Amino acid sequence: xxxxxxxxxxxxxxxxxxxxxxxxxxxxxxxxxxxxxxxxxxxxxxxxxxxxxxxxxxxxxxxxxxxxxxxxxxxxxxxxxxxxxxxxxxxxxxxxxxxxxxxxxxxxxxxxxxxxxxxxxxxxxxxxxxxxxxxxxxxxxxxxxxxxxxxxxxxxxxxxxxxxxxxxxxxxxxxxxxxxxxxxxxxxxxxxxxxxxxxxxxxxxxxxxxxxxxxxxxxxxxxxxxxxxxxxxxxxxxxxxxxxxxxxxxxxxxxxxxxxxxxxxxxxxxxxxxxxxxxxxxxxxxxxxxxxxxxxxxxxxxxxxxxxxxxxxxxxxxxxxxxxxxxxxxxxxxxxxxxxxxxxxxxxxxxxxxxxxxxxxxxxxxxxxxxxxxxxxxxxxxxxxxxxxxxxxxxxxxxxxxxxxxxxxxxxxxxxxxxxxxxxxxxxxxxxxxxxxxxxxxxxxxxxxxxxxxxxxxxxxxxxxxxxxxxxxxxxxxxxxxxxxxxxxxxxxxxxxxxxxxxxxxxxxxxxxxxxxxxxxxxxxxxxxxxxxxxxxxxxxxxxxxxxxxxxxxxxxxxxxxxxxxxxxxxxxxxxxxxxxxxxxxxxxxxxxxxxxxxxxxxxxxxxxxxxxxxxxxxxxxxxxxxxxxxxxxxxxxxxxxxxxxxxxxxxxxxxxxxxxxxxxxxxxxxxxxxxxxxxxxxxxxxxxxxxxxxxxxxxxxxxxxxxxxxxxxxxxxxxxxxxxxxxxxxxxxxxxxxxxxxxxxxxxxxxxxxxxxxxxxxxxxxxxxxxxxxxxxxxxxxxxxxxxxxxxxxxxxxxxxxxxxxxxxxxxxxxxxxxxxxxxxxxxxxxxxxxxxxxxxxxxxxxxxxxxxxxxxxxxxxxxxxxxxxxxxxxxxxxxxxxxxxxxxxxxxxxxxxxxxxxxxxxxxxxxxxxxxxxxxxxxxxxxxxxxxxxxxxxxxxxxxxxxxxxxxxxxxxxxxxxxxxxxxxxxxxxxxxxxxxxxxxxxxxxxxxxxxxxxxx
Length: 1003
Fold this sequence. Notes:
Layout: H1 2-17, E1 22-26, E2 37-42, E3 48-52, E4 55-59, E5 64-67, E6 77-83, E7 88-93, E8 98-102, E9 105-109, E10 118-121, E11 124-128, E12 142-146, E13 150-155, E14 158-163, E15 169-172, E16 177-178, E17 181-182, E18 184-187, E19 190-195, E20 200-205, E21 208-213, H2 216-219, E22 224-228, E23 233-238, E24 241-247, E25 252-259, E26 267-273, E27 278-283, E28 288-292, E29 297-299, E30 313-315, E31 321-323, E32 327-330, E33 333-337, E34 349-350, E35 356-360, E36 363-367, E37 376-381, E38 383-389, E39 394-401, E40 409-416, E41 424-430, E42 434-441, E43 444-449, E44 453-457, E45 463-465, E46 474-479, E47 485-489, E48 494-498, E49 501-504, E50 520-521, E51 526-531, E52 534-539, H3 540-548, E53 557-559, E54 579-580, E55 586-590, E56 593-597, E57 611-617, E58 620-623, E59 627-629, E60 636-642, E61 654-659, E62 667-668, E63 674-678, E64 683-692, E65 699-708, H4 716-807, H5 813-849, E66 855-856, H6 857-874, E67 878-882, E68 888-889, H7 893-910, E69 915-923, E70 926-933, H8 940-951, H9 960-963, H10 966-976, ...
Parallel strand pairs: 11-12, 59-65, 67-69
Antiparallel strand pairs: 1-28, 2-3, 3-4, 4-5, 6-7, 7-8, 8-9, 10-11, 12-13, 13-14, 14-15, 16-17, 18-19, 19-20, 20-21, 22-23, 23-24, 24-25, 26-27, 27-28, 29-56, 30-31, 31-32, 32-33, 34-35, 35-36, 36-37, 38-39, 39-40, 40-41, 42-43, 43-44, 44-45, 46-47, 47-48, 48-49, 50-51, 51-52, 52-53, 54-55, ...
Helix pairs in contact: 4-5, 6-7, 7-10
């Protein structure tokens, strides 16, 4: 296994030895906190760590992350020790405090015995020895280091070993230091001692010398040894050259890395990253140098030649090319110079015999192979821009000035008869300057001009323009191994020709591939495309998948000056601007040199892992794992995507998206690795990052959850509470509103009911009034009819009596008395009728117009008693008023007065030497007024008549002439006040009139 590792190691460095290198310097001007780089290491996650006198630095290939605010008395750090593979790297500050680097983050810890950087033994301090550039300037320092089997204690002139299991001691009497530098180092778990006297390297096992090796570079006193146990690397610096030394179990193997001027000046630490082929040099005063060993070689013309601008080249041998100057180059430089004179740099081709066909101005030149290209055969004069041959004939593109005087060129496709320029078989005229021609198949040719792409039929002579109405400045036409035709253009990218249709390929991120000069396909089906700004590579299969599905992303891998070019600008414009050599190398001309490389040996560097573990929240740094918990008041969130990647940053493709936002498309992450989010709402959010990790378009994904708790007023419970409160408020509001509406409705209903009742009462009153009026009218009709009937008789009797008196000439006194008596009686009767009728009319009128008022019934009766008292006294009759003096009534005063008046009048008339008693009684609203006399009384027929008349006053016939008007009037009046009268003949003598009245207020 060790031999295998050694052979791989030596193979790597044998490649590095023969290559060029690039140097990049970092100091306080571009990222470092201080210019003294004490130690360098790479952790298990791929990050480079540096110790300085102003903090610890983490480097990911693009940016430096500085930790200089650790809770220590000093931020001056020294060397690394520990076990990177176990994620436990330690370093110490000036005052012995320890810092543990784990999980990509440094933190200060308490000093543990097993991780201590010093031991006190035999009254001496022993400091941890893990590299030979620690304590190198301190004389009298004692050192120690642990191995699995035991511990070594190193003093000036001795080395002591204590076995870990048996505690047995072994002592070696050797001079361990030379000029204050320890001559002991550890490599591949073995301990070695440099013996300058014997010029040998001695191996020490368990405190005893067990083997001896010879390595002149290690024993040379002019060599300076840099070794690091934690990195398991040994470097030798000799005469400004850095070598790497490795022990493989059988001996030391040394390989040259790089040669630099003034290399040993202030260099105190070294680390070589074999993954990315980079050498890191730490200086005590000048910062950090990063030396890269690219896979590309750029060859310039010798200093004696003009500028190194190359255009056309042709393969010359298996490993070299020739240019239009006749200069032959391989990846080591100029091999031979044929000294071509005056050849145009844009055209060069081979004929079927291997002769070089070139052009000098407008003259065709052929350099013969058989004379080593030193003899020229001059042919006819025409301007040739492209030429190729097959087994049967020559094909050529010619240009000439336009004949109409306009600027520019026309062109002609010439197809010759046989393998010579003698006879032209066919000509195809082109209206614009032709650039490139290529056979499509046996019957068709593809020809590109500065504006069009044509497909020409050799059989029918028809010319088909492919690019329709859009102009394309064609650069090159290439046929890939699988038979696809690819078209490169100036300014519009490159295209796939399929079914007589051009399909444009997508651009790279910087649109550099828009000006593609040509493309070369390697054995793996990968296209190498030189442009005006870098060299790109992309698998053809990926492009073809894009043709099938335009949503797929095409990833171009870019090589730039950091890869070993002198310039990023490659050259095109010639008919051969890229060559494939038999040794597997590709060659591209550039604005500053020829670029040689073997595509099979050029590695695409992709990152292997991605870390999303830190963020800056409102200017405060926060570390997290898979979940980022934020406060609800967080405003600006900067999430950092950390990727250890030490190649060209252009090829680091990182994209991120935040799910749940209006825009969830992938967004590119810049070189600073920062993705910013502002004003993120509360809730659980998903933040996804993806990174390209291979040429096949494979991605690695990382997902973190961002949790922002809501404010109390944003919680579900608060919303439920608030919603409930709002609903309750709305409910109360609705209830209140309904109550108000109901109240208003109730009020309206009351108003309506009141008005309705009023209207109903009014209607009812009107109806009652109507009925009353009807009854009154009927009664009046009846009364008038009766009165008319009854008046007729006395009036007729008076008329007849008067006639009888007139007819007689002389009347006796007896006859005159009789006639006058008859006329008197009839007139008196008529008078009484009239008076009674007037009283009735007056009472009725007053009853219709007067308003009801409250009055004393006793006073009313008393007034009537006083009125009839004189007449009663003449009849020796007493009127007694026993009515309740406190009784107040609402009954119409006029009507009741008329009723009482008539009844008292009758009683007084027919009562002599008697009494008339008036008394009252009440029950609720019913008032009973009783008028009792001791007169002659009414006979039974009258009582029956009036009782019957009262019950059916509307229909009964009035017998006024027989019974008089008095009681008829009383009955009419009682009907008006809704009263009744009961006639009763007293047992002894006289009549009782019982009035039943309702005591209520009438409107």
